[in-house]
Amino acid sequence: MTKLSKQDKIQIYHLWHDYQIGPAVLSQRYHVGRSNIGYLLALIDRHGLAVLDQPFTAYTSNFKKQAVKRIIVNHESLYHVALDLGLKSRGIHQSIPRKGNGLIVGFLWHLKVEYVLRL
Hints:
Blueprint: H1 6-19, H2 23-30, H3 34-47, H4 61-72, H5 78-85, E1 98-100, E2 103-108, E3 113-118
Antiparallel strand pairs: 1-2, 2-3
InterPro entries: IS150/IS1296_orfA-like
């Protein structure tokens, strides 16, 4: 897999938006997973190209807790929470929520948080 530059991401978005080149073709052209291309396109489509200019963000403990709560308590999908929050990476562990001994344990790798909710 290739790490995309900001210019690559802008070009990918314009190829998709202006010329209707599909994620599968873009994935092959840029040597990036199709799901990553799809997330990038959805992110830019929702938040605009300005989302690519956001610097590294150190998230507060409360922000992380609320994000995980949306997934665990409100049953929102990981993908949609990350997209809604404008997270530049899909770096979300796909096995959440998982149950164990009466607990629901959630991990959001991008937010570097572990949150345990007792039922």
